[in-house]
């Protein structure tokens, strides 16, 4: 049985992307919880222990940028790293995501090694920052 020390909330309105991420992260240290909308993402983020969020930028209804802003405004969740996924690799999209509070961005499609490396790197940075804030 695999040990899953990190809970990853994956948010995308495309079921194929959610399934792909679940397959890519099988046998990884991430337990995947999925959401297909911004509304569902906010509900699950509040009702599950979430260590990191992988969030699509463009979704119908509440966009990923708006979801990111809501997570950052929530004192219970504002420390959770958010990696935004986008099919658009342009300055405006990156700027919008970073202004909303994204920790980092990834361009779709993603591969297994790249995804795991990005998630592990973002978590390590986040943990180091929280230790620094306690120490210094």
Notes on the structure:
The structure is a single chain. This protein is of the alpha/beta class and 136 residues long. The chain has one domain (6-135): Rossmann fold, CATH 3.40.50. The protein contains five helices and five strands; from the N terminus they run βαβαβαβαβα. The protein has helices at residues 15-24, 38-47, 64-73, 91-100, 112-135, and strands at 6-11, 30-35, 52-56, 82-86, 104-107. The chain has a five-stranded parallel sheet, sandwiched between helices. Strand 1 (6-11), helix 1 and strand 2 (30-35) form a beta-alpha-beta unit. It is globular. It starts with 5 loop residues before the first strand and ends with a helix. The mean pLDDT is 91.
What structural keywords apply?
alpha/beta; single chain; globular; Rossmann fold; five-stranded parallel beta sheet; 5 helices; 136 residues
CATH topology: Rossmann fold
Name the poorly predicted regions: none
| Major sheet characteristics | 5 strands, parallel
Helix content: 40-55%
Q: What series of H and E elements makes up the topology?
A: EHEHEHEHEH
**What name goes with the CATH superfamily?**
Response regulator
Physical arrangement of strands within the biggest beta sheet:
2-1-3-4-5
Number of domains: 1
Q: Give the DSSP E fraction (strand runs of 2 or more residues).
A: 15-25%
Could you say which overall geometry the principal axes of the C-alpha atoms support? Answer: globular
């Amino acid at each position: 049985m695999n040990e899953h020390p990190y809970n990853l909330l994956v948010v995308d309105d495309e079921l194929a992307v959610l399934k792909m991420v679940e397959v890519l992260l099988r046998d990884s240290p991430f337990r995947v919880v999925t959401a297909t909308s911004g509304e569902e993402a906010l509900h699950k983020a509040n009702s599950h222990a979430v260590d990191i969020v992988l969030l699509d930028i463009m979704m119908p209804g509440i966009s990923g940028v708006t979801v990111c802003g809501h997570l950052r405004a929530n004192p219970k969740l504002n420390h959770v790293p958010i990696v935004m996924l986008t099919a658009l690799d342009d300055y405006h999209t990156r700027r919008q995501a970073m202004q909303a509070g994204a920790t980092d961005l990834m361009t779709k499609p993603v591969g297994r090694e790249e995804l795991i490396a990005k998630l592990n790197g973002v978590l390590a940075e986040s943990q180091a920052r929280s230790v620094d804030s306690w120490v210094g």
